[in-house]
Amino acid sequence: MQSQKGPPMEPTPMFIAVILAIIGVFVLITVVKTMYTVRTYTAGVVERFGKFSRIAQPGLHFLVPWCESVRFMDLQIRQADVNVETKSKDNVFVTIPVSVQYQVLPDKVFEAYYKLSSPQKQIESYVFNSILGHVPTLTLDEAFEQQAQISAAVKRELDAVMSEFGYNILKALVTDMVPDAKVKAAMNDINAAQREQTAAQARGEAEKILKVKQAEAEAQSKALQGEGVARQRQAIIQGLQASVEQFQNAVEGSTARDVMSMVLLTQYFDTLRDIGTAGRSNTILLPNNPGAVNVLLTQIMAGLGAQNSFDGNGTSPRPTPTPTSTPTPATARP
After folding, report:
1. What CA dihedral angle connects 250, 253, 256 and 262, to 10 degrees?
2. Cα gap 73→126, rounded to integer Å
3. Which residue, among 125, 119, 139, 127, has the nearest Cα to 175 in the 3D structure?
4. Which of 13, 203, 288, 295 is within CB 3.0–4.6 Å of 328 for a Cys-Cys bond?
5. Mean pLDDT for all residues in the chain
6. Which of 257, 329, 317 is nearest to 293 (CA)?
């Protein structure tokens, strides 16, 4: 018995649609994977089966489907902040913050991508090495004064090392130097003491100038007072001389001794009046009667005569004893 074969089965429209959809998705994925763009300040590293192929510049590019892949390298400026703790020459521990600004050289993207796995860590290591080679040879004050030189030395050494790896060091900035808190407090105390010393010297100079000016003013005042007293005495003498002449002209037979006796008596009563009216007078000794004025006049005239004799002969004459009266204490009214 022979078996009968039916007619072959034809693919259904649903099956054909599924197959076409799969092919379309595959083509779409392939096209998407072959197209890529590189942004500005970015470089594309293209590898074919894991091997370096080429460097793609900014723009639209295509890959060989399923054979090539692309990695991107940032060409913008980046910054690495490093805090280095070291000891100065005068045994002071100090923390030095260093900011390193660097970027990948466009013509050395291959070296930057393949030779360094972690460029920031390696830059930190070189910064530590450079700082530890310079700061320990300087005192703390010298390190503060030479921050620019330390920055230049760090940049110079980093440039020499990192250029062969495709990196350009733009700046290496020593932004600060932070000593230990106790050292900082001691430095502030020293600075405050120096400023106080300077202020004290300035105050001393000012007081000196003030006292000198006061002394000059006082000396000038005393000189003027002396001139005033001298003129006053001259005026008194001239007044007395005029009074004596007028008295002698008015009273015939009167002598200069009579006039001086009257003047001394007048001054004697004026003195008593001034002492009595003064509010804070001390106890003084005065003659007990007006007749003592004559004794005082005799002593004054004897002294004047002795001075005249001494000036004329060059020898001092023997003093002539004169009667004196016993003074009694007189207390002024308070």
Report:
1. -70
2. 22
3. 127
4. 288
5. 79
6. 257
